[in-house]
Amino acid sequence: MKSTGMVRKVDRLGRIVTPIELRRALNVTVGDELEIFVEGEKIVLSKYTKEKFCVITGEVIDEKTELNYLNGASLSPKGAAILLKELQDYRN
């Protein structure tokens, strides 16, 4: 992870201001949604996308073919087939 050198204080309501330079660089505009992740002791913000990606293949998943497993992780049919084959190979 790369440091920006920018430091901001949390206000009494728990908010922080994202610097304009950072918003411009990442194309984050008013009204955009940010997704919040936790990595160990770090809070990671990512521009939210409604598209779902398969955790195995990385391909965009159509809502009609999506399979949800592992605490909300998404699998495409192709990803599920790969996972099944690897589990069968592991078992033998």
UniProtKB/TrEMBL annotation:
It comes from the Bacteria. The keyword DNA-binding applies. PANTHER family: PTHR36432, TRANSITION STATE REGULATOR ABH-RELATED. The lineage of its organism: Bacteria, Bacillati, Bacillota, Bacilli, Bacillales. NCBIfam families: lp_hng_hel_AbrB (TIGR01439). Residues 5-50 form the SpoVT-AbrB domain. The keyword ATP-binding does not apply. This is AbrB/MazE/SpoVT family DNA-binding domain-containing protein. InterPro entries: AbrB_C, B_subtilis_Trans_State_Reg, SpoVT-AbrB_dom, SpoVT-AbrB_sf. One of its GO terms (molecular function) is DNA binding. It comes from Planococcus dechangensis. Keywords: DNA-binding.
